[in-house]
Amino acid sequence: MGISSYNSQRTREAYAILKELKTPFVIHQPSYSMINRWVEDDGLLDTLEELGLGSIVFSPLAQGMLTSKYLKGIPESSRAAQGKSLQQGFLKPETIEHIRSLNAIAERRGQTLAQMALAWVLRKGRVTTALIGASRPEQVSDCVAALGNPDFTDAELAEIDTFALDANINIWAKSAERKGPERKK
User: Fold this and answer.
1) How far is it, in rounded angstroms, from Cα 184 to Cα 42?
2) Helix 93-108 × helix 113-122 angle, to 10°
3) pLDDT digits 0-9 by tens, 116-172
4) What is the C-alpha to C-alpha distance for residues 12 and 49, in angstroms, rounded to an integer?
5) Domain that holds residue 127
6) What is the 3-state secondary structure (H, E, C) of the chain?
7) Is 183 within the bounds of a domain?
8) Is residue 182 assigned to a domain?
9) Which of 29, 31, 95, 129 has a Cα-to-Cα distance from 55 of 20 to 30 A?
């Protein structure tokens, strides 16, 4: 059994229910990226580690925001321009400036921004895997290359933390807080 987008408290509740039902619970799928850090603030990663559950994060590239695509504006062919899954309101000037600064760090590391963003979510071994949502083969190749430079110095992490700020883009936050149906005993 797996769940998606539950906060730490709801994850513990689901764990207890599944344990009572003797149903194997193996994975949680939260959204998580350099600019969507709710799992850290909520303590979800600690909870998953404590309960022995894996995590398969989705949107580690923040729906394309943590790629080079939006560094110079909104391309006409992009999700944001077409009104698809990425809301244009997420591309605030200050968020783009932070992303440009993160891109500069990635370049110094010899990586693309996407590669660094993936290495970053995987950095502590607490995230089991990251879903990339690639639409072209070259995107898959670029993302896999993140494994070529997975380690960060303390100085790099400190610099990243000055720009990897939560950008209030977790569109699943409400469902993470939602109370589930009451169980009958």
Assistant:
1) 28
2) 90
3) 999 999 999 999 999 998 888 998 999 999 999 999 999 999 999 999 998 888 877
4) 12
5) 2-177
6) CEEECCCHHHHHHHHHHHHHCCCCCCEEECECECCECHHHHHCHHHHHHHHCCEEEEECCCHHHCCCHHHCCCCCCCCCCCCCCCCCHHHCCHHHHHHHHHHHHHHHHCCCCHHHHHHHHHHCCCCCCEECCCCCCHHHHHHHHHHHHCCCCCHHHHHHHHHHCCCCCCCCCHHHHHCCCCCCCC
7) no
8) no
9) 95
Give me the CATH number covering residue 94: 3.20.20.100
pTM confidence score: 0.87
Q: Model confidence over 35-81: pLDDT tens digits?
A: 999 999 999 999 999 999 999 999 999 988 898 887 876 656 656 55
Count of structural domains, the chain:
1
> Residue 81 corresponds to which tokens in the numbers above?
């321009």
